[in-house]
Amino acid sequence: MICQISFGQTLDEKLVKGKIRLDSVGVNGINILNLTNGKTTQTNNAGEGFYLFSEG
Predict the structure, then answer these.
(1) pTM of the model
(2) Beta carbons of 43 and 49 less than 8 angstroms apart
């Protein structure tokens, strides 16, 4: 499994873009959970997901 992460920044929050790549299974609809704030998101058909996090 390979995970790529890049960062973008707003005033109080950071936008994180990640991509999950697997050789043996599809990457669409993988749930991602932020354990700190409990927010979730899912990957798209390309395995990409966007996550907005507050600093702290």
Answers:
(1) 0.58
(2) yes
